Amino acid sequence: MAHNPEGNRKQVHYVGDSRVRADRPKLYPPDYSEFPGKTEAFIPDFLLKEWMVAAVFLVGFMTLVMSELPPLGEKADPTNTSFLPVPDWYFLFLYQLLKYKWASGPYVVIGTVILPGIAGAALLLAPWLDRSKERRPHKRPVATGLMIVTIIAICALTWAAEAEHEKQLESAPGRKPKEAKVIAADERGYQLYKQSACIKCHGDQLQGVNGPHLIGVGNKPGMSAEKIIEIMNNGRGMMPAGMFQGSKEDQKVLAEWLMKQKQK
Amino acid sequence: MSKKVSRRKFLTYMLGGTAGFLGAGLLFPMVRFAVDPVMKKGGGVGFVDVGMRVSEITDRPKAVQFKVHRKDGWYQPEEGELLTAWVMKDEKGQVVALSPVCKHLGCTVNWDSNPQFKNQFFCPCHFGRYYKDGTNVPGTPPSKPLDKYQIKIENDRLLIGPVNKA
Amino acid sequence: MLRAIYDWVDERLDITPIWRDVADHEVPEHVNPAHHFSAFIYCFGGLTFFVVVIQILSGMFLALYYVPDIVNAHPSVSYLQNELAMGAIVRGMHHWGASVAIVMLFLHTLRVFFTGSYKHPREFNWIVGMLIFLVMIGLGFTGYLLPWDNKAYFATKVGVEIAASVPFVGKYIATFLQGGDIVGAVTLERFFALHVFFLPALLFMLLAVHFILIRRQGISGPL
Question: Any stretches that span the bilayer, and where are they (chain B) (predicted)?
């Protein structure tokens, strides 16, 4: 790199020199110069360290990129009523805020304008709200405290939104596989299925109506007859508990029949 | 002094090396992504039955239109892409299918369309001319003969394939 | 050789003062991770810029294949991701980079906040930083729609609904964002234009101011 530490600049002749000179005294002396310590030149000493940090960062970043494919869903279909909308994760906290009673319906302004407005304005005007000369976080407890409370609130809201979304996903009517067929339709399990309340939400062909489809439920990872009985008894997501009213034996038959619903 | 300079040099080289690593790490996937169409072999267009009997072909060039299905990135029209060939029999009775794309600047040539130049292919853009066998008439703008399509004959039917790359 | 080129340019433009200001300015010990490991918190800003560079580069390359149009957007994204060499990597860099940029920006903001670095005389740079944060959020919101999959479409609908609930001006904001009455063809085109022209232009200006101010004012002193 063409660097000129000796400073033997050639004489350049300009007509009417209005440029800023290099040897002009600085307006803002950096305040850390008052502190003893080892300072370093930006190039190459410090930049090398910064770029080494960047190299480590890049390796980590590329590992993430290569291990997780960027998701691409199905083409947008405005008529799809079963799709559960979810914003990108950094908007989740705001999204969750709008679900609470005091920030929705007639009070939606609280969630969309007032709270974000107050937080945004406070953040923007922080230098004028926190005017003390003190910089250490524990010496300005109000600013530090408010910020910590805000971070905790954002994390909690994001977590709540994520948890609720997961729960909804479990019981949402998903998209059924293309080749949907009831397997072993002549067995008693199917009769039991049709007689019970299952059919109302999961559909007569297991296609899913208000609840998710059950096609291929038999080869869901971790699914077993016992697990199905447990879900029938305790409910899951939006599904209420105790939906199967018949005898224990019938329930077992039904669960085993459901386990036969396997898709390739 | 000399020690100082060598340390500075060393740091500068390290800096260059790190910059190289960062730049290569970032740019390698992106550049590979950008040049992928160059690296890919052309997805050859197959032979297409143009719906013409070989016995119908005369020694007079006839414009034949046919459709090829070419995958153009994510775009692949259902109905295919319409191409034209000038089909005729040469003196030896061999079937020839000429591309209508003028070798000068890519306009479309026409057979016998200019009364001044009978029995020649004529390009209206810059008055390029070709003889019946596709050879460019010397002294006109084109510098090469018209391209020939690869052809196949199966059961008396004419099939046209990709353009023969000279 | 390099020396000769440098001299030739320097004789005409007198770049040495600028170069020396950039190259030779002293960086204090308390932000140097080689002296104190805990000083890595001072790297967040630089790393955010690094991610922004990744975003700009990968975005430029994605634009080689992407089409902002409701018929072709999804097929073109699917094509560039599934049928081109390294397509999944380049799109992955842009997709995950967006999230990483927000995380780094958040960490950088917190570092500045907790070290009280926004105080006199750096108030103005704090404001610029907040504006950068807003622009980045805007880039995230507009970029989310571009693949035109269900997730993108419905998230944008929700986002526009939220904007519409703002009193008085809400419905004008919503119509402006949508470019009409629904989230559709015009919306995709505007989000694309905002995402690749308007917001990046704004971002570049703000970043330039941010860096010039850091250079003028120096890094805040040790605690």
Answer: none
